[in-house]
Amino acid sequence: MRKTFGFLIGIAVGGLVCGTIALLLAPESGEELRTQLRDRGQNFYNDVRNAADERRIELRQRLEELRAPREEMTPPVS
Q1: Which phi and psi angles does 55 have, rounded to 5°?
Q2: How many Å apart are CA 65 and CA 72, to the nearest integer?
Q3: Considering the entire predicted model, what is its pTM?
Q4: Structure confidence at residue 74 (pLDDT)
């Protein structure tokens, strides 16, 4: 448990440090960078939302198929 927690803390700290360095070394101004990040974040959110909506529709259709009454199988007539 401690190893996992330490690993997660390391990832979080590493992400913050790398993010800070990237912001300081970015070739655009702060306002342009924030606009780009906001746009990318919004696009990512929309992509995830669309994928989730599509998956939800697929799962609902599958659930309806499973809930539908099955036709009785009749033995073949010979």
Answers
A1: -65, -40
A2: 15
A3: 0.49
A4: 64
Please enumerate in sequence order all residues whose Cβ is within 8 A of that of 28, keeping only pairs 6 or more positions apart, or say none.
36
CA pseudo-torsion sign 2, 3, 9, 12? negative
Place of tokens 């906001």: 38
Query: In degrees, to the nearest 5, what angle opens at C-alpha 36 toward C-alphas 41 and 24?
Result: 105
- Rg, Å, the chain Cα set: 25
Distance CA 73, CA 68 (A): 15
Distances in Å between the Cα of 30 and the Cα atoms of 3, 12, 52, 77 are 37, 23, 32, 79
